[in-house]
Amino acid sequence: xxxxxxxxxxxxxxxxxxxxxxxxxxxxxxxxxxxxxxxxxxxxxxxxxxxxxxxxxxxxxxxxxxxxxxxxxxxxxxxxxxxxxxxxxxxxxxxxxxxxxxxxxxxxxxxxxxxxxxxxxxxxxxxxxxxxxxxxxxxxxxxxxxxxxxxxxxxxxxxxxxxxxxxxxxxxxxxxxxxxxxxxxxxxxxxxxxxxxxxxxxxxxxxxxxxxxxxxxxxxxxxxxxxxxxxxxxxxxxxxxxxxxxxxxxxxxxxxxxxxxxxxxx
Length: 266
Fold this sequence. Notes:
Elements: E1 2-5, H1 11-18, H2 22-28, E2 30-34, H3 36-44, E3 51-55, H4 62-73, E4 77-81, H5 83-90, E5 98-103, E6 119-124, H6 129-142, E7 146-150, H7 159-164, E8 173-177, H8 179-186, E9 192-196, E10 202-203, E11 213-217, H9 226-230, E12 234-237, H10 249-263
Parallel strand pairs: 1-4, 3-4, 6-7, 6-11, 7-8, 9-11, 9-12, 10-12
Antiparallel strand pairs: 2-5, 3-5
């Protein structure tokens, strides 16, 4: 199905604009992705948008033509509109020429197969969508089984998190859970919980890591609660050789992930 929209008050335009807000995303079960590169990453991973919206004044591109054809073949909707309306939809003064609406998927812990990979990333109360997106990107880079978001984390389907993930939101398994739920699930099978800490910690290099290893990263400003650290099987410390007293949460997760991979011979 194809349509052309010329009015700012069109119901479809209002709906697409609303997806910039978490409350409306949750209600609709949809999220908006802008740019051909991210849309192509999604297509390559097996996910197509329900709706594809494009500026009428756009350059021809083979990847976009293929995406259009696949969306239409799958029963999706193609919408063309003016650059001004596309700007209103995305909230950006200079939006890219194409955006897509995707259905959010199940992020329950029951989807996670802990045996699928030797390493997993876990984030607790990670509030910055840029950090969340970076952790997804790290998970893709290190071959992690997925990213598990614990507690009050940023929305992984926000435009900022999706953009920061560089497409990894489509390639890395994602789960969301309360701390108690996650801990009960983890202890129901094999899995080593590891956190960077200063409490009774050993050097991160040479530490006795075991697969599957779940690397736990805390909130950007508060770190991990002491009670959470107490539940960890292993606490490791990374040396700070300068004046900084800690690393960015996503960076710390990446450093630890590569160290664990090396220790496990991966």
